[in-house]
Amino acid sequence: MRIDILTMFPELVAPWLDASLIGKARRGGRLDLRVHDLRAGADDPHRSLDDAPFGGGAGMVLAPEPVFRAVEQAAPARPLLLLSPSGRPFTQRWAEDLAAGGSLGLLCARYEGVDQRIADHLVDGEVSLGDFVLAGGEVAALAVVEAVCRLVPGVMGNEASAREESFAEGLLEYPHYTRPAEFRGWAVPEVLRSGDHGRVDRWRRAQALVRTARRRPDLLAARGGLSDADRALLAEFGMLGELDGTGPVVAPGEDPLS
């Protein structure tokens, strides 16, 4: 997997890429991560990248000449995506597609954004982390890098983790517990200590359904709602009535399927 990141601040990005699982995979040759300084495309003594916007207005805009020059010099992997709040929302499915593609470039904007000709004629698309604005694209680029790279075979220690986590099947992930079995009066659900792996799997699936229905009903709707099998599973753990609005309300923080 090759990923190129083009940024005004390579010193912010480079150390992060050498840490944790990403850094280990990079040193092991599974990931080819390259950081390029956009200022390499500047041709004035101040290495300027920005200029005032035509028509007036607040802030500065990344100019096309130095950015085009920097990208053409770096020859980054494609598709080259611009980090932008007006871009296509980033999703787990998109991360999977990018990981499968084997290469990716990320262009980090700053200030008020980029000259529109960069978006129209230099990059292959725009990506957004959500409906909020950052000072620049570096944090967003690193989020994309981690989401994509952890799906590359051999990067994560346990490949099953990527299959079972949130959004892998359009559902939020089930809750996790570890030792001790009881902490300050709060016990780990009995089912997780039962040794019945089939029941544990069903419980986790039911938890994922309940959590998604409560916190992200839009995700459940996108899956077509609850299937007959889902309803049977929730009924097994006494949760179907609650989701249908006929059962007890579970207080925040309480485990609904324990």
Automatic annotation (TrEMBL):
Reactions the enzyme catalyzes: guanosine(37) in tRNA + S-adenosyl-L-methionine = N(1)-methylguanosine(37) in tRNA + S-adenosyl-L-homocysteine + H(+)
Record the organism: Acidiferrimicrobium australe
Q: What is this protein called?
A: tRNA (guanine-N(1)-)-methyltransferase
Record note on quaternary structure: Homodimer.
> What parts of the sequence cross the membrane?
none
Residue positions binding S-adenosyl-L-methionine? L129, G130, D131, F132, V133, L134
Q: Which UniProt keywords apply?
A: Cytoplasm, Methyltransferase, S-adenosyl-L-methionine, Transferase, tRNA processing
Q: Which domain of life is it from?
A: Bacteria
Show the GO MF annotations. Answer: tRNA (guanine(37)-N1)-methyltransferase activity
Q: Boundaries of each tRNA methyltransferase TRMD/TRM10-type domain copy?
A: 1-220
Record GO biological process = methylation
Q: What does it do?
A: Specifically methylates guanosine-37 in various tRNAs.
| Name of the gene | trmD
User: Mind telling me which PANTHER family this protein's record contains?
Assistant: TRNA (GUANINE-N(1)-)-METHYLTRANSFERASE (PTHR46417)
**Sequence similarity:** Belongs to the RNA methyltransferase TrmD family.
> Does the keyword section mention Transferase?
yes
Note the InterPro entries from the entry. Alpha/beta_knot_MTases, tRNA_m1G_MeTrfase_C_sf, tRNA_m1G_MeTrfase_TrmD, tRNA_m1G_MTases_N, tRNA_MeTrfase_TRMD/TRM10
Which EC class is this protein assigned? transferase
Kindly give the NCBIfam families that the UniProt entry links to this protein: PRK00026.1, trmD
Subcellular localization is given as: Cytoplasm
Q: What is its EC number?
A: 2.1.1.228
